[in-house]
Amino acid sequence: MRTALTAADLAVIDARLTPTDELLARAYPGDDGSRQPVHTVYVAADRYTPELPTVWGRAALTAVDAAGGVEAVAVSVSLDQEVAAAVAPGVRSKLEREPIEDLRIDFEDGYGDRGDDVEDADAERAAKRVVAAAGAGFAPPFIGIRIKSLEVATRARGIRTLDLFVTTLMEHGGLPDGLALTLPKVSTVAQVEAMADAVAALERAHGLTDGRLRFEVQVETPQVVLGADGTAPVARLPLAAPGRISGLHYGTYDYSAAIGIAARYQSLEHPAADLAKGIMQVAVAGTGIRLSDGSTNLLPVGERTAEAWRLHARLVRRSLERGFPQGWDLHAHQLPTRFIATYAFYREGWPEASARLRDALDRTPGAVLDEPATIRALAGFVLRGVRCGALSTGEVAEGTGLDEPTLVALAHPRRATS
Asked: 226 and 282: one domain?
């Protein structure tokens, strides 16, 4: 075939697009395919013990049994009877086996200012207990700390706690595989850059591999969503600290208060919250940085237990539908509805997802014409369902013919081929 463009013409085009190619490869590598927890549980640093996940799991089961069992609670939060019956055994098993997927030992709002001597001791103690928990098999898959912010009033304290915690871990056995660090109240790109400098210095001090220490950024100030110059600083974070940021976590109450929402109406479903989270979503799409929704402060205790369970289950489902597969839990009694709503989401979507995946991979014409991007989304959906326990590898293999590594490759093809 005759073509008009010469090799020189194509070389000019390649040269023009080389910076774009480099940007896409550097800033938008895609998700790495590793597990993301469905929630993060927060507990004040002085209250953390290695047995805490087991204690919380038992408390959750006691609360559920007092209400008639998991299936009864599932029905009470508006699940269809058939779905409730389907998820109940898995949720009970989850509460017995792995009630907390991600635990954050809090040195910020949930802890407060207790003086340097007390916080020093608590930071060291927390690290030693994390090592003990990992050694005894009590540690959840992901565990770490939230330090104080890098604003001037708490900067030195936050960095010192980070240093004490990491240094003590290294002195008593090393870092757990699922180590998670959280930086709160970020308002500028410079604060994230400073945190990246701090963890890089710790890596050098302890002979760790470059990039071993990553951290989550809490989006809970309006300044990081819309900066003074009219730009969205949150969109600059991936390039400001390349490879360092593991996730963006929305801070429901700090953010709501900062923009003037009355306390009664502060919620992760407020329109202002959805605006901020929509910007977060676009800012890190394709970067591999994960997203987490925030918390609800209506706790399932006392006379408001049923009301709080209904609210929590609805908000968990809402977040999942909007592309936020993770959220915060603040009380043991929130664990049942976290897993009830999450398991229901994946079990209800499983028949359609499996059929569409099967048809797409077999090239069987169906009612829905799925693009490659949708196939990635379907595989990612099933993969998340497997990893949280809502779906079993056996039923996925039977329903789709796919094992977990194949699902990872389908859901994250850029990583699989890189």
From this structure: yes
Instruction: State which of 292, 318, 348 marks the end of a domain.
Output: 348
Find where tokens 């989401």 sit.
Answer: 345
Report the alpha-carbon distance of residue 99 to residue 92 in Å, rounded: 9
Q: Give pLDDT tens digits for 38-56.
A: 999 999 999 999 999 999 9
Q: d(Cα 217, Cα 199) in Å, to the nearest integer?
A: 14
CB 10 within 8 A of CB 77: no
pLDDT, one tens digit per residue, over 108-128 is: 999 999 999 999 999 999 999
Q: Which domain holds residue 408?
A: 350-417
Q: Is the pLDDT of residue 58 over 60?
A: yes
Closest C-alpha to 327, from 124, 37, 108, 79: 37
- Displacement of CA 225 from its chain's centroid (Å): 19
Of 165, 103, 102, the residue nearest 128 (C-alpha): 165
Residue 364 pLDDT greater than 90, yes or no: no
- What is the residue type of 391? L
| pLDDT(65) > 70 | yes
Q: Are 285 and 376 in contact (CB under 8 A)?
A: no
Cβ neighbours of residue 69 closer than 8 Å, sequence gap 6 or more: 88
pLDDT at 131: 97
Note whether 128 and 227 are same-domain residues.
yes
The Cα–Cα gap between 137 and 130 comes to 10
Buried b / exposed e along 369-378 (16+ C-beta atoms within 10 A)? ebeeeebbbb
Closest CA to 273 of 259, 285, 286: 259
Is the same domain home to 193 and 291?
yes
